[in-house]
Amino acid sequence: MTPDEFRRWGAAAVEWVARYLEDVESYPVLSPVEPGWVRAQLPPHPPQHTEPFDAVLADLDRVVLPAITHWQSPNFFAYFPGNSSGPSVLGDLVAAGLGVQGMLWATSPACTELESHVVDWLVELLGLPDAFRTTGPGGGVIQHSGSDSNLCAILAARDRAGAPPEIGRMRAYTSTHAHSSVEKGMRIAGFAADQLRLVGVDGSFAMRPDALEAAVSADAAAGLVPFLVAATVGTTSSTAIDPVPAIADIAGRHGAWLHVDAALAGSAGVVPELRPVVNAGLDRVDSWCFDPHKWLFTNFDCSVLYVRDRAPLIQSLSVLPEYLRNAASESGAVIDYRDWHVPLGRRFRALKLWFVIRHYGAEGLAHHLRRHVELAHEFAGWVEASDAYEMAAPVPLNLVCFRHVGGDTETKRVLDAINESGRAYLTSTRLDDRLTIRASIGQTRTERRHTEALWDQLRALASVDRAHDG
Ligand code: PLP
User: What is the C-alpha separation between 190 and 188, in angstroms, rounded?
Assistant: First the structure.
């Protein structure tokens, strides 16, 4: 593709994305296609000869769009959001254009230094402890996903605690509501299933410190090594917030690494009045992560892992073959982020964060997140005031968990009806062993008219049911 062709088709591709984002609200949020539909639209063999680029763009409309679940729709209330924004898309475009592989400082100093700078900006934007700044012994690194951040924390904690055969005696602790990536990370790190203890939760689904203390003390008394406590701020099922200060007391007493997974909730720190909710006790944790690709308007992939002390992380993940040696690394004056995560290669992901932060500013980010939280509280108020639905969990942030008062069958009927309508997309979980709908309010473009339309739909479905019962 010549530079002039790139210019022409690049403009057409940007126009396609702009039109998509303009129209996104008009598509059924959850893709209705059957398994195999996409492949059935495609030729079985790759092209022998060049194809015109406009034919490729046309196939986006024909083949791709019908099979998209629209994460960028303001009516996307499922899972946690996977947000994007104009500046973020443009940041990713520039990153692709530069096409650098930033494994070492030397392979593109801008890739490393912009990343260090932006993650240090986030320390200030989110009100995080100064110990997380890369200017000291700690620091932050952009990882591919929240799962990777959790895995790296597990690896660093394991290797700080000892080496084989000691590993067989190590035990980690997390709550029954922690994300599955903690269990997966433990497995990847070579631990057996019983080396991860699942600690019980209280009535708000937050880890019980007394249950943690009992589990840790019993293991320590049995000669085992409690090496890691993985707390969650904003659990996936219900955004429950584990009591980090009390957990830090216990981890500290037993010499265990304390990691906090704040995948979604960490972004809430941009709202100063929410910092006491999401940042309590962070001055005492060893590592903490959050995902700007969830609730900070930054395209997937972008998770940020912070450590108070980078040495154990680097010790776990650094291998130095001859072909990567270079003068800058050997000077000790630079960061080589390849030593801070699992893969060697790395994309220039700091660009999209940099674009986002400069576009919105601290005020803009706080404005949008504050609004999502307000909308969630208003929605919770509608649920509380209704006869047909009841709340299933507290709402510390932007997730509303509720169910139909008629039980699981009714809850499922409502959930399926909403999702089949294409007008909104909701997912579910189980809380207190009852089917629970999660309305996750955090999409970049979600406004009051969207939450109101969702509630109108829920109300209509509930009243149909009551008429039917009567
Ligand atoms: N931790 C929590 C609390 C989550 O809710 C999630 C995903 O929803 C993850 C970790 C994993 O995030 P990712 O999809 O980026 O791996």
Answer: 5
Give me the mean pLDDT over the 281-296 stretch.
Answer: 98
Which of 179, 186, 188, 287 has most ligand 1 atoms within 8 Å of CB, for mutation? 179
Burial of 239-261, coded b for 16+ CB within 10 Å and e otherwise, reads bbbbbbebbbbbbeebebbbbbb
232 touches ligand 1 (CB under 6 Å): yes
Q: Would the CB of 291 count as within 6 Å of ligand 1?
A: yes
For residues 427 and 355, what is the distance between their CA atoms, to the nearest angstrom?
31
pLDDT, tens digit, 9 for 90 and up, residues 14-38? 999 999 999 999 999 999 999 999 9
Residue 400 phi, psi (nearest 5): -110, 120
Write down the pTM of the prediction: 0.96
145 Cβ below 6 A of ligand 1: yes
Handedness of CA 452, 455, 461, 467 (dihedral sign): negative
Give SS3 for 140: strand
> Which are the contacts of 39, defined by CB distance < 8 A and separation ≥ 6?
none
Between the alpha carbon of residue 35 and those of residues 31, 40, 59, 67, 285, the distances in Å are: 11, 10, 19, 10, 44
174, 181, 302, best to mutate for ligand 1 pocket (most atoms within 8 Å of CB): 181
Cβ atoms of 274 and 192 closer than 8 Å: no
Structure tokens of 68?
A: 């998209």
CB-based burial label for 63 (10 Å; 0-12, 13-18, 19+): middle
